[in-house]
Specification:
The protein is of the alpha/beta class. The protein is built from eight helices and seven strands; from the N terminus they run H-E-E-E-H-E-H-E-H-H-H-H-E-E-H. It folds into two domains: about 110 residues, Trna Endonuclease, Chain: A, domain 1 (3-Layer(aba) Sandwich); about 110 residues, no CATH class. The termini are far apart. The mean pLDDT is about 85. Keywords: Endonuclease, Hydrolase, Nuclease. It holds the Pfam family Mrr_cat. GO terms for molecular function: endonuclease activity.
Amino acid sequence: MAADWSDYQEEAAKFFRSLGLEAATNVTIKGVRTSHDVDVLVKSRHAGFEITWIVECKHWKSRISKLHVLGLREIIADTGADRGVLLAENGFQSGAAEAAALTNVHLTSLSAARREASTEVFNMRLTELYDRVEKCRERYWDIPKGARIDHGLRPDSYESGYSGAAIISLTEDILRKAFRGNYPFEADYMWRSAAHNKSDIFNSVEETIGFLEPVIHTLESKLDACVAVIEQPPTNSGNSN
């Protein structure tokens, strides 16, 4: 474990990067009311979608009090971050746990995260993927059928090809099973053909995220391209007098 606070910060950032996330230390971010200095800023960026976590590193000999949880909650509210994480190797006072309960602040330690195979972080990533799929569902059905066909989001009647609706159903089915945590599991047979040349059996959360990320990213990119064309203002080809 790190010898001092700055090393602890860097180890925390390295840990989040190992999970495929962006992480920077000693970052100042602007809130609605004021600016905040945060130990580690974690981001997950995707097409039209961004998740932000604020991580505070408490490399202390004493347990962390309720005041630090309340302080992190204030920073999250002021900046609009999605989640706060308090890392402390020597634990938390009971008041701190109560202040974090049923909020978007998570209390843990770096050693616990490593020891537990990053279960909580992976669950947060599954939640992020679920939110992205639900956003894709809204966007997909907002697009007229003809535009979806023209831009490769669905095949024409009685034809085969890429189907955004089938991809959404497939990913929702996989995510529901992943949240239960009962590995291995199989994707629903009705939607297996939606993503070609992919395995139907998922043996771990890492494997599940590794499969879902590019599939959802492809769908988001297709939706972005389609919407960009639909929203493009018409060109005036006529002559003005």
